[in-house]
């Protein structure tokens, strides 16, 4: 894989370059090491029988490569406190990030657009709890997304929406990385 486009929100990439250059290097190494392969045979109308890039395979590779470099999952579980709720002992919530190391959070998202945006909310949560200094969202660029099964979103929409929110959300430094596949000819 390679970085097709990136966007530095509130100085996310610059923070990585200055304060965490060793982790920025690891993230870039992981992206380059992931191999996108067309192994998923489409059953979609209009693309039946066409081989598409398999998001599960790419996710597994990201997980294995980040784990090899000691990036760990972080999870917070907490009681939900709602005003005037009848039985507060029943309510618990959780937030989870796939990869974290030294205050840097990374999520890889090959899902629907809502999950990309929810990742930003999780970054905000951990930043507010002083458990993160900067975050990285790795998502498919349009050229990759168009060769995957339907339902997968693309990062250009995420960057567009962040720009339209005019620095109000997320209020955490984030490096948005749009990736694409290297076509082997």
Terminal CA distance reads: 15 Å
| Order of the strands making up the biggest sheet | 1-8-7-6-5-4
Strand count, sense and barrel status of the largest sheet are: 6 strands, mixed
Fraction of residues in H or I helices: 25-40%
- Count all strands and give the number: 8
- Beta percentage is 25-35%
Number of helices: 6
Mean pLDDT: 91
> Unreliable stretches, pLDDT < 50, 5 or more residues?
none
Radius of gyration: 18 Å
- Encode the helix/strand succession as letters: EHHEEHEEEHEHHE
Structural class: alpha/beta
- Which geometry do the CA atoms define? globular
Notes on the structure:
- With 185 residues, the protein is α/β, with parallel strands linked by helices.
- The chain has 6 helices and 8 strands, in the order E-H-H-E-E-H-E-E-E-H-E-H-H-E.
Notable characteristics:
single chain; 185 residues; alpha/beta; 35% helix
Compose a concise summary of this entry.
This protein is an alpha/beta fold. It contains six helices and eight strands.
Element layout with pairings:
Layout: E1 2-9, H1 12-19, H2 21-33, E2 38-41, E3 51-53, H3 55-68, E4 72-79, E5 92-101, E6 104-108, H4 113-128, E7 134-140, H5 142-145, H6 155-164, E8 174-180
Parallel strand pairs: 6-7, 7-8
Antiparallel strand pairs: 1-8, 2-3, 4-5, 5-6
Helix pairs in contact: 1-2, 2-3
């Amino acid at each position: 894989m390679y970085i097709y486009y990136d966007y530095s929100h509130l100085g996310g990439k610059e923070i990585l370059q200055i304060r965490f250059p060793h982790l920025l290097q690891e993230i870039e190494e992981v992206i380059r090491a992931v191999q996108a392969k067309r192994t998923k045979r489409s059953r979609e109308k209009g693309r039946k029988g066409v081989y598409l890039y398999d998001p599960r395979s790419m996710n597994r590779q990201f997980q294995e490569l980040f784990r090899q470099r000691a990036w760990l999952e972080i999870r917070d579980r907490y009681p939900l406190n709602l005003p005037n709720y009848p039985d507060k002992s029943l309510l618990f919530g959780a937030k989870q990030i796939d990869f974290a190391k030294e205050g840097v959070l990374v999520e890889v998202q090959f899902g629907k657009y809502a999950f990309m945006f929810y990742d930003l909310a999780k970054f905000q949560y951990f930043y507010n709890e002083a458990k993160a200094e900067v975050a990285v969202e790795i998502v498919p660029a349009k050229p990759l997304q168009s060769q995957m099964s339907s339902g997968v979103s693309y990062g250009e929409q995420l960057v567009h929406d962040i720009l339209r929110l005019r620095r109000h959300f997320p209020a955490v430094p984030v490096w948005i990385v749009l990736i694409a596949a290297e076509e082997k000819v």
